Input
Amino acid sequence: MSARGSKRRTERNPVGTTTPTYLGMPKFPKLAAPELRNPVLRHNLQMATHTIRDKRAEVVAEVEDWEVLRLDGARSKDAALNDLDHHLEELERNLQAAGATVHWARDAGEACRIVTDLVRATGTDEIVKVKSMATQEIELNEALEAAGIDAWETDLAELIVQLGHDRPSHILVPAIHRNRSQIREIFAREMGKVGRPAPEGLTDDPAQLAEAARQHLRDKFLRAKVAISGANFAVADTGTLVVLESEGNGRMCLTLPETLISVVGIEKVVPTWEDLGTFMQLLPRSSTGERMNPYTTMWTGAAPDDGPQDVHVVLLDNGRTRVLEDELGREALRCIRCSACLNVCPVYERAGGHAYGSVYPGPIGAVLTPQLRGTTSDIDRSLPYASSLCGACFEACPVRIDIPRMLVELRSQVVDQQRGGLPSAEAAGLRAASWVFGNHKRLEGVQAGAAAASRLLSRRSIGQLPWPASAWTEARNAPAPATESFRSWWRRTHEEEGS
Amino acid sequence: MTSVPGPAPRVALFATCFNDTVWPETPRATVTLLERLGVTVDFPMAQTCCGQMFTNTGYVDEALPLVRSFVDVFEGYDAVVAPSGSCTGSVREQHRWIAQRCGDDGLAREVEQLTPRVYELSEYLVDVLGVVDVGAYFPHRVTYHPTCHSLRMLHVGDRPLRLLRAVRGIDLVELPGATECCGFGGTFAMKNADISVAMGSDKVRHIRETEAEIVVAGDNSCLAHIGGLLERGRAGVRSMHLAEVLVSTAEHPA
Output
């Protein structure tokens, strides 16, 4: 019975691909180790996550029916996902009717090819970008670069990451691992190499840094013929794409160029215009801790004589239908990329985003990455274990994704996948323990041995233990077993009452 | 308040395997406390472990026989009480899923019938017995760490704090950043030892800020992590289970 269950899961476990940047990365604890020892990073992350965490808590607390909103959000995402093919076709029809061209991409390679060809067809060799997780996921910038096309990130934090030849470490604030003096240094050093240089004597005053970015980007906005975006939502019954942002860079990209290409994960669909209302309340509060974000841009295909006239939408699968097949796993596709789970996660706060070996870090990344890429590599297999299962993420999630439960499910998939071969030390140990716990007489035997050893040891605390327990005692004392187990005491004191 | 009116309630104690073997003073305190409140306590000898260690490490097949045995041992009781938020959480939130995942729908149904009667100690005291003042005396400076599973899985809320506030002589100090995880997380403490210790260090720093003599929680596993760090740092702060504080009296101090 149990064997059948395991086999079924193993077969279902997707064998995906890891994009080149993250291929061959070691497992999470190894990636986290140097980050943990970086005092500047630890300080930056602690400051930033606690600031956003507190802001979110404040604006969420002022919404009386927040829990009802969360349920609504989960329900409308589930409605979309449970009938996804229908909603996607409806979206396609309405987009086409409004003058947009719809493309379907099975994976990262296909999506990058479609976008590259579309850009090439315009004859331009540079594009401006609105911050987008989907294009990060498929490594579009790298693909465009290989085709001789410059892709300019225009979101402030993405710009910092790009100029710093760095990787994003947060979904909402990709440069969260940088402080303002580091940003000043990057701007001063790098801006001149790719456009208007940073002004002389740039300080680390946030207003000055923002102004330098504004000036640097202005030329690019005014010059660009093509913009590439993602979308926060795609409304099926109207064919409308929606982007929420804070800086106005998105508005520039979405209105100024002649051609607009949007790469949209197929899980971004919401069934109706009305569903959008729920998410417009849930997302800004969960994400930036604002009641409403400063800029919301919505467009339905191409509007005559207004904004981009050549409008393309690339609908991206890249592992999503595999996730959808999994009854227990599909809940993760509800994710609206708000990053509330990252900001409340004690593991993310200390390890930082780079340790997750993916564009999706933090608790949701520990679920999504192995779901989308499979669990065939060291990093992907280790991600479900990158959590103490404290549950803060589930509590913060605006669409009620039960991340701890999904992490446990993924752990069992990782273990089941490795069954059948030579058991690891961990597997052998846990199997032996399971055998001991399988019968109370066996447990009593072990307890008697442990109690005898403890009597010889004659103290309650152990400072040093051999491998693998040394992982515990390296920094913590370990408790010694009691010299008399509870059940021995019970037998001695409650003998006549005990069963 | 020393005993509950009406016919004596009966409960089965689920000691939990770790308490049984490593921290017997906690289930002993639970028995003494419940008996003092007029509850008849039974300890079914056939009990072993809820299986959480296996489940949360991904070894669901290994956890399944333990779910079976938990149901067999406890299904005849009106109430099961455990001095552990984490193990109670595993029984209530994971046992049914384990049975279903392994394709045993019959067991899943049995689990569903049993789990509403499984209580964490503070839930049983406050919700079932309706007591907050358990007649304890504990003249010490204490801070309380709400463990993640009791807080976010079981939603015990302020029940443990209400019980502690009613203890005579206690100097209860609020713990800064109380709801943040201590970093134990079961096998997380071993697999991601560096991060676990980093989280624990911050928890310990907050505990020391309170200048408490004793840190109290409802889970000895989290306390082993916190206490192990405190002891390694020679902090002179003791960790103690809630049950041991509540059982303490002037005549029998803990």
